Amino acid sequence: MSNKQTIEAVIAHSPEQPLTVERVELTQPQGTELLVRVVAVGICHTDIMAKNKGLCQFPMVLGHEGVGIIESVGESVQGLAPGQKVLMSFDSCGHCPQCSDDKPSYCDDHGSLNFSGTRPGGRLTHNYPNSDAPIYGSFFQQSSFASFALCHPSNVTVLDDDLPLPLMAPLACGIQTGAGTVFNTLDVKPDTAIAVFGCGCVGLSAVMAAKVAGAKHIVAVDLNHDRLAMARELGATLALNPSAFESAQLLNEEIQRHCGRGCHYSIDTTGVPSVLRQAFDVCGPLGVTAMIAPGVPGTEVTIEMMGLLPGKSLRGVVQGDSVTAEFIPKLIELWRAGQFPFDRLIQLYQSIEELPQAFEDMREGKVIKPVVIIDEQYFDAATAS
């Protein structure tokens, strides 16, 4: 029996070249690995940044919001079996100080596990048939822009059988990050004020979470009229387009008027230094600003030192401070109860052949959250949900 199988995968060859659908080989699961038949995958700005800014090795199989069904397991896997539905998210080592303190997204090995393109120790999982030329996979220890993916028990969450798998995919990163920042990092309290800068998937997830948390004032800021309209529908009490203001100061004054004082919390999802500065400035005494998107390596932001004196703080956030296997079920329960309608953000694409187009649509801001159905038999069920 061969220790490899041929799969379809979407390959990123360089920042400039478009994604291509190709036939490649994937190794069979070893040790604690799981082989998952990918049903659907979400596309995240992290995928786009990794490719278009050259933040990964090439050629690379990207994808880190995969959902699917376990096909087979390695000889050391316990507690998981073929046939189970799973969501794949980021991976962590499980034993560094942060992992031991239930903060796995700040794992000492976060960079190497999720961005290096290899398994721990440098092993490659993908290759071209009859070729020694490397293909880097193991992106977030899954590379789910493919018909099959290899992952680990440490980065999967088992899903209930009745859940529509394609709709669950964005929970793995974008939605988890936005909602987790509100629930876990900021611990937003009732009757408080929060401003969210950037109303993509992450920002709108934060808006929904803030509504659930009972925030009195929820301010959404974006340049896109349609996304501001969506933010209002999902719970924003004020939606502002910066282009309507002559200066950042006037925008901040409008937010402060709405809230009665500075915000208790703010979130920047844009990765733009000037916007992060705005998010910081709009907070009042003891206000906390969460930075979700750091931009490319080397990007810097300037904060006036006097601005810190009222006890204000600026925090970087990865994956919403979430322990995925515990947090995702909580979000699903809120969704089932009608309190967290994240499915409204999703645009479905029908096949792996449409993934390169979905990737470009996301990059150009045409859709909020594209989800590509890899196993086409799930398309009708997903669209009926």
Automatic annotation (TrEMBL):
PANTHER family: ALCOHOL DEHYDROGENASE (PTHR43880), ALCOHOL DEHYDROGENASE 1B (PTHR43880:SF67). This is NAD(P)-dependent alcohol dehydrogenase. Belongs to the zinc-containing alcohol dehydrogenase family. SUPFAM superfamilies: GroES-like (SSF50129), NAD(P)-binding Rossmann-fold domains (SSF51735). Gene3D superfamilies: Medium-chain alcohol dehydrogenases, catalytic domain, NAD(P)-binding Rossmann-like Domain. Residues 14-373 form the Enoyl reductase (ER) domain. Its cofactor is Zn(2+). Keywords: Metal-binding, NAD, Oxidoreductase, Zinc. The keyword Metal-binding applies. Pfam families: ADH_N, ADH_zinc_N.
